[in-house]
Write a structure and sequence with these properties.
The complex is a heterodimer of chains A (about 110) and B (about 110).
Chain A (H helix, E strand, L loop, with lengths): L3 E4 L2 E5 L4 E7 L7 E6 L6 E6 L5 E4 L2 E6 L4 E6 L8 E7 L8 E2 L3 E6 L1
Parallel strand pairs in A: 2-11
Antiparallel strand pairs in A: 1-3, 3-8, 4-5, 4-9, 6-7, 7-8, 9-10, 9-11
Chain B lengths: L4 E3 L2 E4 L5 E6 L6 E8 L3 E9 L2 E5 L6 E5 L5 E5 L8 E8 L8 E2 L3 E5 L1
Parallel strand pairs in B: 2-11
Antiparallel strand pairs in B: 1-3, 3-8, 4-5, 4-9, 5-6, 7-8, 9-10, 9-11
């Protein structure tokens, strides 16, 4: 059972544009929502994370928007750069230890 | 500060064999978890260890097992390998408690032929 649904599966954006990736979750026990970035041949690396007590968190060009009532959260990458081309995963975890449930991933390509 | 270290990075095994993968967590991290990554199923949680005890387990058959040592290093074992076990196996470590950043290693690429 996929508890975190991520869309789109792939995304092509022009350099300088905004990349938007969306995720929806089902389990209301989730209370920590990180985003990971993965380059080919590398392990996932934490990009930014949010807890449900805030609706938005911004770090540099990366922003998470969180809608608790809709059980949805999204990643916005402003001024997208070719170096941002990677696969992005949303994830969620609850109080049951450090166990992440991942979305299916979005392959982002930023064209120069 | 060294990151999560996994060995071996690449290995090829034959169906029916067994394999052991190793993971050294970041210094000070006592929670170690394992994930399987495949193109079809994505990233799936295998199990988490803390203080040498399995704290959480994902939905994988009993052929997948793990353990953690007193120095927090961890190993996972897959017995009676199947072709479908071909995947990238990722180890991750973190401080204890929910909401702490989970850091991933670069993974062990397993190919079963």
């Amino acid at each position: 059972q996929q508890q975190v649904k991520q869309s789109p599966q792939s995304l092509i954006v022009q350099k300088g544009g905004i990349s938007i990736i969306n995720c929806a979750y089902e389990n209301t026990a989730f209370d920590y929502f990180p985003w990971y970035q993965q380059f080919p041949g590398k392990g996932p690396a934490l990009l930014i994370a949010i807890r449900p007590d805030v609706s938005e968190k911004k770090e540099g060009r990366f922003t998470i928007s969180f809608n608790k009532s809709a059980k949805q959260f999204s990643l916005h990458i402003m001024d997208s750069q070719p170096g941002d081309s990677a696969t992005y995963f949303c994830a969620a975890s609850g109080n049951a230890g450090n166990m992440l449930t991942f979305g299916g991933g979005t392959r982002l390509m930023v064209k120069p | 500060k060294a990151g999560v270290t996994q060995t071996p990075r690449y290995l090829i095994k034959t169906r029916g064999q067994q394999v052991t993968l190793s993971c050294s967590p970041i210094s000070g991290h006592r929670s170690v978890s394992w994930y399987q990554q495949t193109p079809g199923q994505g990233l799936q949680f295998l199990f988490e260890y803390f203080s040498e005890t399995q704290r959480n387990k994902g939905n994988f058959p009993g052929r997948f097992s793990g353990r953690q040592f007193s120095n927090s290093r961890s190993e996972m074992n897959v017995s009676t390998l199947e072709l479908g076990d071909s995947a990238l196996y990722l180890c991750a470590s973190s401080l204890v408690g929910p909401g702490n950043t989970i850091y991933f290693g670069e993974g062990s690429w397993l190919t079963v032929v």
